[in-house]
Amino acid sequence: MFHATRDYSAIKEIPLLKSPPSYEEFRQHYLEPNTPVIIGSAMIQHWRARQEWVCPDTGKPNFDALREQLCQRTVKVPVADCQTRDFTDQKRSTMDMKDFLDEWETHSRANEHSRTYLKDFHFIRTFPEYGAYETPTIFCDDWMNEFWTRRMDMDDDYRFVYCGGHGTFTPFHADVYRSYSWSANICGVKKWTLFPPDQEHLFQDNHHNTVYDIDNVNPTQFPNFHKAERFTIYQQPGQTLFVPSGWWHQVQNIGDTISINHNWCNGSNLDLLLDSLSSDLKEVERELEHLKEMMEEGEWIETCQKVLLSNSGWDWSTLWHMCTAVRDRVLRQMNDGMIESPTFLDSTCTIFLQDGEEKQRTTPIFPAPLLSQQPPLELTLQRVNTVLDVIRKDPSARWYLVHVKMIPIDTK
Ligand SMILES: O=C(O)CCC(=O)C(=O)O
Ligand SMILES: [Fe+2]
Q: Which residue spans adopt a coiled-coil conformation according to this UniProt entry (predicted)?
């Protein structure tokens, strides 16, 4: 929509940049073409996580420091059992952080493989005052975390810590909503295998099942998988990887690893998010086709949106709200005559509603980048308005927003 079709055929290898690029370089060379890049350790060397979570002599996790700093109170963390598959994912549960660290250290000392992987742990939400890291400037134009951390109806975000011993892994997937991710490696080595987009036909069978583990593929079920183009990266301690939108990937941990990652989106991949929502919705509509005749049209639209929300975590109103929040912020920035520190970047205490009850939370401290470190505001506004227009003109999206979500939508 904003881009001519993206072309991945010219990529020969994933570049490694010694020092972080300027925002404009990053935007032009990686965000817009949607291609990966690795940034050397200088970018995150000063982080508290790099300084205090790793033993300087061995490069291994500093288990004592982690216990002392993070286990003063009981903290439940989400974990995955890497040896048990659960449909397209690993079996998930929660455990006490202290038990996780004790078990991990035992395996590490014995040089054994681990199977428990602490993943998708909302670190900043759990430790808002700790200051383990800051979002690098090139990743600051992040609409998902800007929007989710300020939503008044729920407390959620896409800012995670991952910790796992040798042998832990994340199975083959593309990221939620076709968002970008960045992953900063605090210690250990992470082997990434990245597949450029538009190769799904090679790793899906006729029943829409997808390869789970790229090192264990049944050639009868997926006879063409070996033809898929891929790039392998060994991400070293301190390096940060930018994972573009819609690139499928699998991650294997080599040694004891800790990493920090965010999922995010902005004007450069907003068209891909819109495509992703539309194709998720088409799939729901196909599945529910048999109910269509039995329902009034409005009921059918609402049912599809409910199923979409529960399957994929979003619906038309999520995308609409995110886009209008960004549009209003950009308009404020334009009207304020280019203030240096946009108000949305401040750290504030927000009141939000959960199950009808008022709760408090601290919103993140995004560094306040100079305006030269942001995308052009006019371009952002133009793209966000284009997507709002697509939603506004889609009859079923419009019906849902106006009649179910009670959102007044202008007809412009
Ligand atoms: O580090 C991992 O195990 C998975 C990370 C990942 O999938 C991502 O950052 O998109
Ligand atoms: Fe991922």
A: 274-301
pLDDT digits (tens, 9 = 90+) for 116-133: 999 999 999 999 889 999
CB contact at 8 A, 148 and 162: no
Domain that holds residue 283: 270-335+376-404
How many CA atoms are closer than 13 Å to the CA of 367, on its beta-carbon side? 14
Token pair 């404009």 in the structure block, residue: 24
Same domain, 223 and 113: yes
- Which stretches of 296-349 are DSSP H helices? 297-312, 316-335
Q: Contact 158/118 with Cβ under 8 angstroms?
A: no
In this structure, the number of other CB atoms found within 10 A of the CB of residue 298 comes to: 13
pLDDT digit string (tens) for 39-65? 999 999 999 999 999 999 999 999 999
Same domain, 300 and 258: no
What CA–CA distance (Å, rounded) separates 290 from 337? 54
Q: Which ligand is nearest to the CA of 36?
A: 1
Please tell me if the CB atom of residue 170 comes closer than 6 angstroms to any atom of ligand 1: yes
Q: Pocket of ligand 1, candidates 166, 173, 249: which has the most ligand atoms within 8 Å of its Cβ, to mutate?
A: 249
Average pLDDT over residues 101-116: 97
Which atom of ligand 1 is nearest the CA belonging to 182? 9
- pTM of structure: 0.94
